[in-house]
Please model this.
Amino acid sequence: MQPQSWPEPDPQVAAAIRAMYRGRREAPLAVQVRDRLGELFPDAAFADAFGQVGKPGWSPGRLALVTVLQKAANLTDRQAADEVRENLAWKYALVPGPGGSGLRPQRAVRVPLPRRRPRP
Model:
């Protein structure tokens, strides 16, 4: 995977965001970050973090922005993943990309425990 610049938000999402926050109230932090700072964490700054093999994942720059937004909203990992999938302001800021509906939290790995031996 090679570092790439972030695409512009989907025009429909951008139009919905403009309509929702047009002068009536302050836009959410995610929208303000995207509008004022653009690509806050460019992928080139994280070039060494990109894997060379395997299935491509989210860019480290976008994951860094998720972490910032998560901390600002005091969310758990699962809640942050839900925001990426469901919150229009977060989708606007992060631009998940084609077919990218959002982050999927890792499922817990169940490790079989050894059985207890009966006492003699």
Observations:
- Confidence is low (pLDDT under 50) at residues 99-103, 105-111.
